[in-house]
Amino acid sequence: MEKLAEVILIPSPAMGHIAQMLELAKLFFHQNHHLTITVLIMKLPDYIDAVSGPFVDSVAASSSSDRLRFVHLPAADPTPEWGSKTRGHFVYRLVQSQRSHIKDFLISQRSSKTLAGFVVDMLCTPFMDVADEFKIPSYVFFTSPAAFLGLMLHFQFLEDECQQDVSLFKNTDSSNLLSFPSYAYPVPPSVLPMVLVDRDTWLGRFLDFARGYRKAKGIIINTFAELEIHQLDAYKKNNCNMSRSKQDQVPLPPIYPIGPILNQSKSKSESEEAEITNWLDQQPTKSVVLICFGSQGSLPLDQVKQIALALDNCGCRFLWSLRQPPQSNNAQFPGEYTSYSEILPEGFLDRTEIKGKVVGWVPQLKVLSHEAIGGFVSHCGWNSILESIWCGVPIATWPLHSEQQVNAFQLVKEVGVAVDITLDYCERNKDQPMVTADAIEKRIKELMEINTAVREKAKEMKEKSRASVIEGGSSYLSLGKLIDELLKNAAL
User: Fold this and answer.
1) Is 399 within 8 Å of 405 (Cβ atoms)?
2) Is 121 among the residues known to form the active site?
3) Annotated catalytic residue: which of 49, 121, 198, 420?
4) Per-residue pLDDT tens for 68-87?
5) Does the active-site annotation cover 46?
6) Which helix (H) or strand (E) holds 303?
7) Does residue 253 have a cis peptide bond before it, meaning omega lies within 30 degrees of 0?
8) Are 422 and 398 in contact (CB under 8 A)?
9) What is this structure's pTM?
10) Distance, C-alpha 300 to centroid of its chain
């Protein structure tokens, strides 16, 4: 009987991360018949996130192979303190609470499986220590761009090797641009992610994440070489310079850019998807702007009304995914409104009935793939960026949290597939100024009607993204190297 090598995948329970990891599991499964894949699932409580749990269940239920299995880790019993800070803090505490369960699982599998590798989400590096106890090689699945990986590692180097307080970067005068190895152009201080320059978040979580990346046997990145040429070159140069200057310093792990990995699974019922698709079918080609802020994205009511005013005035056709901000604690994810008429300006839904549609959660990749979509107002989460590039849809940037501000900067200034509604909006900034209806209307019109250069660049990157994953493409070859590495581990 043919011997199989097992790869264990552990995603973060946040929707944007778990969707990528589940697609990675399917990619491994289909790419090589010598691999068997086990995905260890951590679920968020329904009162925190009502989207990711049913999504995972639907993906697991659709699997019919014993080479791809899903194992649910025991439910955690969160304390009130978990929900007192942020969603990221809650997820981190959940990860920490599962260490003993991961260890129990590995003990139960030790005699029956040949383990080729342990792949952890970029927010789950505490599990690498558990894998080390069992001498299992650990890999990190980095679900953000290579540019942000380089920035995290650079900040970790400054903190640990140079004793520099990186939070001071946020106090830099806005006229003084900052140079970092993983960005081709100088970066405004205002777009530095809060997760790096907020001292509590950096020291409490992200510094340790970055230290974990350095210890990995490899870093798998959901990107492709043609999208981040400068970033991947900077990473390689960093390793070369390190080996010349400090012989005793451990080099950075090899990286495997294997994207774009896209969320191909359903996230709504067929009837809900059909309602959206049927409406899009009635719209002219490239006439509709999609407005969507992702699974964790929502805006305060006064800002929502500014968007509505802009859409009312600009005359553009639109599909707006409008979601309700968390209602009870800081850890909660956005939910769905029961009535849009109560929060939107009086008469808005009637006035825009023909040209627009307001909905809740959307099947984003399916929507972006529709020929009626001509532009995308996006929070610039990396999943959404890759989906937009895959579909050749130009973006108007409106970041909210995590690393989305530097993602937006990268899209506008380096890649050239976006215009900026804003680059430095941050939901955690209590003094965040309002984005006015006039500014929103101006940029949507530019995106949909004026900026042909951005549209042409989006078309070019669409072709490159699709070429990267076919046989002989850059990501196809990188994935092959990764699988060869995993099989080599199993043979040792």
Assistant:
1) yes
2) yes
3) 121
4) 889 999 887 777 666 566 77
5) no
6) helix 301-314
7) no
8) yes
9) 0.93
10) 22
